[in-house]
Amino acid sequence: MRLLTLLLLCGTACMAQQKSIENITSSCSTVNLKKNLYYLASSKLQGRLMGSRGDTLTAKYIAEWYKQNGVQAPYNKGLSYFQSITAVQKINRAALTINNKRYDYLDGWQMFLTEPTDLKNVPVLYVMHNSIEAFYRDLPKMEVREKAIFFNTTLARAFIAKGLDSMEMVLKRRGALMVAWSGPFFNKIIDRQKARRFLPQYVQPYDGNPPQVQPLPEVNLTPQRLREMLAADNLIVDEDANVLNTGDKPYFDIQTRLTVRAQIQFKETHAPNVIGVIQGSDTSLASVVISAHHDHDGVNGKEVYYGAVDNASGTVAIMEVAAMMTRAVEQGLKPRRTIVFASFTGEERGLLGSAWYVDHPLYSMKKTYGVLNIDMFGRPDTIHLNHNMPDSANYAYILVKDTLNRGLREALYTANDASTKLTLDTYYENPKYMMRRLTGSDQYPFYLKGVPFIRIDCGFCSDYHKPTDTPDKINYALLTKQTQLAFTTLWNMANR
């Protein structure tokens, strides 16, 4: 009888707690979400570029929200929410000279800049083989020493598909100075790079490896630059960068010489992550992290890249989740695990803030149970809208990696069933589409450290990384539902 009474009391208490969590989930404030998002995606913050004044103002705003909502400051003896990160900016300058005419970088050419280059008046060997096997058969007869080896489009594509490093190592051992190729696709690639050239570049630290350096410099030309290079030999180049009148020669020297000069400078930048903590009832348990990046692309001339969906939406979501979790604690519903609220800077520049955090964590990665990362909420994506999907305002994409079997998928699905009942779209869990999702946001540095994660997002909208990504286009009902899902999922993770 006593055991039955205890079981009934336990069941009643669990039901009461569940009801209280449902009430807190329902209290998610659309008003707060909208107010905060309009501020973060305002002209005042100038696109929140990492290291800018707008980024600093954003960090202060988030920290003040944490303070007002009872989230603890973990730094400077409980007085600061700011974790200063250090990033190394790369400043590149390069020029190519063809027939004594100088072209600045991205003026019809590009190269992958990893180290300084100074090659002057380099002879060019043009290679016309249609297969890798044919190239290697002829290689012993080819004089490649102190030359640029220029591959036709077919051979270049074959080497790119197989991997360039082994071929470049072979040529480097034979004394070649650089490799080059052309193709019509470089027009679009260069145009895209020009459009985003206003954005600073940084050394990418997140995989823990030293910066990649190719065995040989790689130079890419548009078909127009290729025509100029081959003009002295009276060779005709079509729109697809094919050379038409070479006869049967599989390789030959051309008259034009190339000069390539590239300089790389490095400059340190400092910017703040914003970290808050709600202590769990059992501090012996591993902690849980909920994260979102608050930076975006800043300003290009007079155009502000507001970054409403990317990722002011995710930022305001974790701010609201923090406030909801504090309300739970105030009602006696303290999570078992300590929760870290991490608003990262530098995601857009290469996951810089999250990469810094995993190397300088508040709690070690071995004591981190799992990560819930939010990157873009509240804006139906082009897939759902273009296909007129009925759930276009009632869904969330998910990606779960739980190799340690900690029950993260169950935590997510149970949360959804108990609250928002969104359609959980697993499109990006398909191996064909997964890699960009896996590596493209702040869960990735944690994943590389062996920490399981859940990522929730709404996908890529038509204004992705454009100045037109503004707060008036957010679906605030969808943002509210997705924020509620984040809260209940986090609650489940923190109480497993």
From TrEMBL:
UniProt KW Membrane keyword: no
Keywords per UniProt: Signal
Tree of life domain: Bacteria
First and last residue of the signal peptide: 1-16
Annotated ranges, domain Peptidase M28: 273-486
One of the GO biological process terms: proteolysis
Keyword Disulfide bond on entry: no
A molecular-function term among this protein's GO annotations: metalloexopeptidase activity
Protein name: M28 family peptidase
Organism listed in the record: Mucilaginibacter gilvus
